[in-house]
Amino acid sequence: MSFGDVATKTGGGGAQQGDGGLGPLSDRLSLGVAARLSRYLQVLTQARKMGKETISSQELSEYTHVNSTQIRRDLSGFGKFGKRGVGYNVDSLVSQIRKILRTSGQHNIALFGAGHLGKAIASSDIFADHGFRVVAIFDPDPAKLGEKVGPALVRHPDDLKAMVEEEDIVVGVLAVPTAAAQALADKLVDAGVKIIFNYSEALLQVPPEVTVHTSSPAVDLLYALYFYLT
What we know:
This protein is of the alpha/beta class. Helices cover 41% and strands 17% of the residues. The longest helix has 19 residues, at 31-49. InterPro entries: CoA-bd (IPR003781), NAD(P)-bd_dom_sf (IPR036291), Rex_DNA-bd_C_dom (IPR009718), Tscrpt_rep_Rex (IPR022876), WH-like_DNA-bd_sf (IPR036388), WH_DNA-bd_sf (IPR036390).
């Protein structure tokens, strides 16, 4: 999954009339559709950066490993985006998928951890490419306080609640040691953040209204290895 996958409670994947083909706000995508659309968006965003103006369903299939028929089925459920023999306009499809995933606009992130991983995340364009902006970085290490990492200054975690309100932060990213993750997740929950992206191996306990996505390179490698071996 990616950040676009956060609102994926099971529901109808097709479009409803009366909302520009995108369905009413109460309609939710199924987990599978949202996950695939997020993957298409990742590839399309990179294709646009490379200067591509159009892309075919077969090209999307090669980069995402999703069957081209499935790709056309997913996209046709929300309108007519492509032309036979021409493919999809990259700019238009990026815009439409962001609308479908309801991730258009800018979304502010609080990042915990100013170590090697945190610095890499803060300095990367990956989040910015999809409308996410790291507006606050937190680390309890006195030696790191006040240091500029990427676009923001490192602050003490005690400043979190005020920053969430001031910057309208919607996502918390944990790039911290496993032992520190739960206490920081509790701080995020207490501050009102409803989405947590967890880079640690911690099994976080949060209220049911809070969404946690844990990203583990080891798990991703095991997943890839399984399909390679079978």
